[in-house]
Write a structure and sequence with these properties.
Number of strands: 5
Order of helices and strands: EHEHEHEHEHH
Strand content: 15-25%
Distance between the termini: 24 Å
Largest sheet: 5 strands, parallel
CATH architecture: 3-Layer(aba) Sandwich
Strand order of the largest sheet: 2-1-3-5-4
Number of helices: 6
Radius of gyration: 14 Å
CATH class: Alpha Beta
Shape: globular
CATH superfamily: Sugar-phosphate isomerase, RpiB/LacA/LacB
Helix content: 40-55%
Number of domains: 1
Length: 140
């Protein structure tokens, strides 16, 4: 299952990604926020991460203004490997090399078309395992 959440600064981009996911028939759960009203991003990051950790197959997408706050919050949670990505290649490598289970995007930077492509790549790329799995085990 895919989970998606944002703060107010990421709300606009989240809505565009939700529309894309719906159109493509991707099963997901939108955890909020549901407006431009100011909210505290850690609440949404923690909620999404707890859902991602319920099943190894789960993945998440977090969006805030720069992506930095969501990334910091998510990566403090054991078992979460959140990757703040800026382009399609980093989204691909985040999955292949780091087995990232949360994609973090900047809602106020870049264009929505690029974010859609990053999300598609993140969802369709598999972890390579091998030496990369050994490196991930070193973190824990």
């Amino acid at each position: 299952m895919l989970f998606i959440a944002s703060d107010h600064a990421g709300y606009n981009l989240k809505q565009k990604l939700v529309k894309m996911l719906t159109k493509k028939g991707v099963q997901f759960e939108d955890l909020g926020t549901n407006s431009f009203e100011s909210v505290d991003f850690p609440k949404y990051a923690k909620m999404l991460c707890s859902k991602v950790l319920e099943n190894d197959a789960n993945k998440g997408v977090l969006i805030c203004g720069t992506g930095i706050g969501m990334s910091i919050t998510a990566n403090r949670i054991r078992g979460i490997r959140a990757a703040l990505c800026k382009d399609v290649k980093t989204a691909q490598l985040a999955r292949q090399h780091n087995n990232a289970n949360v994609l973090v995007l900047a809602g106020r930077r870049g264009c929505p078309c690029k974010a859609k492509k990053m999300l598609e790549k993140f969802l369709t790329t598999e972890f390579l395992g091998g030496k990369y799995a050994e490196r991930m085990n070193e973190i824990d």
